[in-house]
């Protein structure tokens, strides 16, 4: 039997409970999943406590399966509640443990608020991704945003634009491309991945007239990696990489900084994008949005990204499981 997908609770005061219920409403006839969280949160749908992940498949058609994790305080939608931070972290820990034990196909993380985790539990990691890498015992992982129209990876993520040139180094780009290449083969089932690489500067530097990073850093690295057998295109001008005809020529794109990667995918598919962490020993996806405290508890939250994240976790998890 195919294991279920494990969902984390996320910030219990955000939109996680609402979109989890909405996801169950749409998916209850398909891939089983369960959520690790306080059962009292899920008032928007029938919810049923389960004792083990293996119980999820039988419960899924009639109710949202919940592996109960009581909160320290009742959740107040839209409010920061540091007293519930420890449970939020424990939900992540349990989901990862189930995935590593083969009892869950993968982990789908509902959004968290880092400041609440720091204030309430002394959370010492920059974010979700870094914490999951620590749990998985890897020194570095890579963030991919994936939608049916586009897969894209930013080489640098949450840093100031002025800091990007110094952060872009040959070891960073090499490691990012190697993790991406391996993930496209192993998890996405693409035997010979084609990766497009954006330049940093306008017009990919235009021969050094608009910047030299392309000629001094990116091009030499791509040439070295091509010699190992990788199919790498670029460095390419970012402004011509993302129209339909260009996207048909590659399987994923590597960009140099956050907005260069996220603007095109969010323009193409704002609601259906999925955050995928590459390089982990387990599958992890998440919706591509935050906790949305401003609309929490108002019934307005869109579950499309969470639904896509569950579907992609199932797809990738089954492929990795079959390859064992």
TrEMBL record:
Q: How does it assemble?
A: Homodimer.
One GO term in the molecular function aspect is: NAD binding
Q: What's noted on cofactor binding?
A: Binds 1 divalent metal cation per subunit. Can use ions such as Zn(2+), Mg(2+) or Co(2+).
Q: Which family does it belong to?
A: Belongs to the PdxA family.
> What keywords would UniProt list here?
Cobalt, Cytoplasm, Magnesium, Metal-binding, NAD, NADP, Oxidoreductase, Pyridoxine biosynthesis, Zinc
Compartments in which it is found: Cytoplasm
Q: What would be the name of the gene that encodes this protein?
A: pdxA
Q: Where, in this chain's numbering, is a divalent metal cation bound?
A: 158, 203, 258
Chief localization: cytoplasm
**UniProt xrefs under SUPFAM superfamilies:** Isocitrate/Isopropylmalate dehydrogenase-like (SSF53659)
Could you tell me the EC number(s) of this protein? 1.1.1.262
**Reaction it catalyzes:** 4-(phosphooxy)-L-threonine + NAD(+) = 3-amino-2-oxopropyl phosphate + CO2 + NADH
CC cofactor: Zn(2+); Mg(2+); Co(2+)
Please, one GO biological process term?
pyridoxal phosphate biosynthetic process
**Function, in words:** Catalyzes the NAD(P)-dependent oxidation of 4-(phosphooxy)-L-threonine (HTP) into 2-amino-3-oxo-4-(phosphooxy)butyric acid which spontaneously decarboxylates to form 3-amino-2-oxopropyl phosphate (AHAP).
The entry's other comment says:
The active site is located at the dimer interface.
What pathway is this protein said to act in by its record?
Cofactor biosynthesis; pyridoxine 5'-phosphate biosynthesis; pyridoxine 5'-phosphate from D-erythrose 4-phosphate: step 4/5
Give Gene Ontology CC terms.
Answer: cytoplasm
Binding sites annotated in the UniProt record for substrate: 128-129, 266, 275, 284
Protein name as it appears in the record: 4-hydroxythreonine-4-phosphate dehydrogenase
What Gene3D superfamilies does the record point to? Isopropylmalate Dehydrogenase
